[in-house]
Amino acid sequence: MKIKIQILVVMFITTSVITIAQSSTEKPFGLVYRDALTENIPGQVNIHPVTYKLNGIEIAANMYTPANFNPSKSYPAVVVAHPNGGVKEQVAGLYAQRLAESGYVTIAADASYQGASGGEPRNVDKPANRIEDIRGMADFITQYAGVNPDRLGVLGICGGGGYTLKAAQTDKRFKAVATLSMFNSGLVRRNGFMDSQLSTIQERLKQASEARAREAAGGEVQYAADSKTTDEMADKIPFDLYREGHYYYNRTHAHPNSTFRYTMSSLLDLMEFDAASNMDLINQPLLMMAGSKADSYYMTDEAFKLAIGTKEKELFLIPGATHIQTYYVPEYVSKAMNKLNEFFGKYL
To answer: How many domains does the chain have?
Structure first.
């Protein structure tokens, strides 16, 4: 039996190993992060898979409740938004679980059209949808027995961080706003990472326009970022974010619902979006965290400087960490959690 399993892992490491794990009793919730919950034990943090409707689409989410949770009591809560291409079982679930260990009721949901959530065509990635997903999580968790809606916070990670900033600009149910390794999806889809694609903006907009026309005519849906990356290809990528992202998403923390691809027509919306616009509308306490060695830090820095509407804001650099390392390296996760506990503890 062990030999058969080893052969399967070698043959299908990027996809099958996670499927095998999900079907086993070791990972019944499909979680792929370190120290993930494998069962609900009375008196400990518990996980509750839930579904709910958002604008006609069924959303799949995981709720985490603190140890000895009593629905007749009043708890603070935190909404956790996952990265681009990520799902609730990866880094979003890790931080949701850790926050629950600190006494918060938390929720991590797959974005509309992505992961285990509904929506067709698959992998639509429009900013308006992602922002609405965050508001939808707030709708659901504030109606959850035991949650105090006046003590609601939000944590956005990577692309989810950019969308969290936009959601919090207008949705004042969020009393405290935090981001980790914030990624400004519109800026990067438009200009390329670190402005590496400025010369091809109009060409890519033309491709997106043609893709939308094809969809409108009933043709095949075209996808961007749909090619497979090998380890050899990844090792040649000059940016830590994408090089390390390959190993995180395709190797160490792979999940069958996680994919980098998105519909080409989504670029029509993405390329006009900017997470850092209207930052002055955020008047809630704001915490923005990033690795001190993250090559994506320039996005956090820009948005933080523009957040002039809040008197309570802090930029926290995690010493030695790159963007992806804040997702899973125990030392860096612990430092981020210590700061989150301090921040949410003060304002929620």
So the answer is: 1
Q: Which H or E run includes 107? A: strand 105-109
Locate all alpha helices (DSSP H) within the chain, ordered by sequence. 2-11, 16-23, 91-101, 127-141, 159-170, 185-191, 201-216, 231-235, 240-247, 267-270, 297-306, 330-347
Q: Is residue 168 part of a domain?
A: yes
pLDDT of residue 22: 36
* Residue 144 belongs to some domain of the structure: yes
pLDDT in tens, 84-126: 999 999 999 999 999 999 999 999 999 999 999 999 999 999 9
Which of 99, 102, 101 lies closest to 81, judged by CA? 99
Query: Residue 247 sits in a domain of what CATH number?
Result: 3.40.50.1820
Measuring CA to CA, how many Å separate 14 from each of 10, 37, 111? 9, 22, 22
pLDDT level of residue 13 (50, 70, 90 thresholds): very low
User: Which pTM value belongs to this model?
Assistant: 0.93
Residue 189 lies in a domain: no
Q: Could you tell me which residues come within 8 angstroms of residue 339 by beta carbon, excluding any fewer than 6 positions away?
A: 287, 289, 316
Query: By residue range, what is the domain housing residue 54?
Result: 31-184+227-260+274-347
In sequence order, what DSSP letters do the residues of 256-290 get, joined into one string?
Answer: TT--S-EEGGGHHHHTT--TTTTGGG--S-EEEEE
Overall average pLDDT of the 317-321 stretch: 98
